[in-house]
Design a protein that fits this description.
Helix content is 48%, strand content 19%. With 353 residues, the protein is an alpha/beta fold. It folds into two domains: 3-214, Alpha-Beta Plaits (2-Layer Sandwich), CATH 3.30.70.100; 220-352, Rossmann fold, CATH 3.40.50. A six-stranded mixed β-sheet has the order 1-5-2-4-3-6, sandwiched between helices. Strands 8-7-9-10-11 form a five-stranded parallel β-sheet, sandwiched between helices. A hairpin with a 2-residue loop joins β3 and β4 (62-69). α4 packs across α6. The longest helix has 30 residues, at 190-219. The chain is elongated and about 85 Å long. Bound molecules: flavin mononucleotide. This is Putative photosynthesis gene regulator, AppA/PpaA family.
């Protein structure tokens, strides 16, 4: 995720950028728990309508709020908040553009604390989550600005099988609140808080990408990337080899001279998918009948294992032929995105078995 500085309320050149604003203020009169809940309930309705998400910390008469959303929506909410007479001494701590949200699931997450034993906080009502013991350590790393160790720690937690949603809800968001607490208790300065929150945004983004790759790795799909029998052009087969390898698949390649040779390799290696490629340069119209026979022989040879037969080449890129023309499950229009598409087809195919 990238972070840009500048006014978040002035609009952005690109739709993918959202504004992120953090401010602190002081409550004019101390709100009761029901006051806070009413305030947040109303705010959530409006935030949802305007695509604004964020969190509000209330601690002993002080507010700290982070809001994120499209510049127009953010400007509307911000102009109301600034006019609100329930708080004063409003001070903007950070204002920047980011390419992803930290509080994507929260129209407005509330965390409140008042030093009165009769009052309870929402956080203390909840049983601690299994990831809770990581929170202090990661908060400390965020305050030290150690993004490399935060990333390594989150990656190892993702490798234990926690989903990106678990990590964001039960680790990154609680760490954000812990940073807010540290700042409210004067244990860190505004600058540390700001840097820490930015690091969490980056970490949240990295966790999402890491979880994607990890889930593919864990599934360990396998594919045989083959040229059609006798086809000397192998451009897309070579490009697919890089793509599938990067996506964590087990990849074998074949350049068979006959459909029987390809069938033997499929039978021996037990792949989930096979891709059979005609030339990317020349339209091999006359090779279609033979390709149809090759697809059929491959399917027979793959018997119980082979879930998806994919084909590619100039004929398919230009839609002169389709998967149905040769009895395949999938025809590539282009190389890009093939590993994602075939993973989907394998999952669907297995679900139907
Ligand atoms: C600390 C604090 C945080 C607030 N956060 C939000 C918010 O996130 N979204 C929102 O719509 N209103 C929020 N409000 C309420 C607004 O200030 C305002 O009262 C409400 O949006 C109605 O706005 P209007 O009077 O301009 O219609 C907050 C108020 C306070 C005191």
């Amino acid at each position: 995720m990238q972070v840009q500085t500048g006014s978040v309320l002035a609009g952005s050149a690109s739709d993918k950028w959202i504004g992120c604003l953090t401010y602190q203020s002081r409550a004019v009169t101390r709100p009761s728990e029901s006051d806070l809940e009413r305030l947040v309930a109303e705010a959530r309705d409006r935030n949802r309508r305007l695509g604004v998400t964020g969190m509000l910390l209330y601690d002993n008469g002080r507010y700290l709020q982070t809001l994120e959303g499209p510049p127009d929506g953010l400007a509307e909410v911000w102009s109301s908040i600034r006019r609100d007479e329930r708080h004063c001494d409003i001070e903007v701590l950070t204002e920047h553009m980011v390419s992803g949200r930290l509080f994507s699931d929260w129209d407005l997450l509330l965390y409140s604390r008042e030093d009165d034993p009769r009052r309870t906080t929402r956080a203390s009502d909840l049983a601690p989550h299994a990831l809770a013991h990581y929170v202090p350590g990661i908060a400390q790393l965020a305050l030290e600005g150690d993004d490399a160790r935060i990333s390594a720690r989150l990656a190892s937690i993702a490798d234990q099988g926690w989903t990106a949603d678990d990590i964001i809800a039960h680790l990154i968001e609680p760490v954000a609140r812990a940073l807010g607490d540290a700042w409210l208790a004067d244990k860190c300065c505004e600058f540390d808080l700001t840097i820490g929150l930015s690091m969490l945004q980056l970490a949240g983004h990295a966790v999402r990408s890491h979880a994607c790759t990890t889930s593919l790795r864990r599934s360990r799909y396998s594919i045989l990337l083959a040229t059609a029998p006798g086809e000397p052009h192998m451009l897309s087969t070579a490009m697919l080899a890089d793509q599938f390898t990067d996506a964590g698949w087990r990849v074998e390649m074949a350049f068979p001279t006959s459909k029987e040779a390809l069938a033997n390799q499929i039978a021996a290696q037990g792949h989930d998918a096979v891709d059979i490629a005609l030339s990317d340069a020349l339209p091999r119209q006359r090779a279609l009948a033979q390709l149809r026979e090759t697809v059929e022989a491959s399917r027979k040879a793959g018997a119980g294992n082979l879930v998806v037969v994919s084909v590619g080449g100039r004929l398919f890129a230009e839609a002169t032929a389709s998967a149905a023309t040769v009895g395949a499950d999938h025809a590539r229009r282009c190389v890009s995105g093939t590993s994602v598409r075939l993973a989907q087809l394998i999952r669907q195919g297995r679900a139907l078995k």
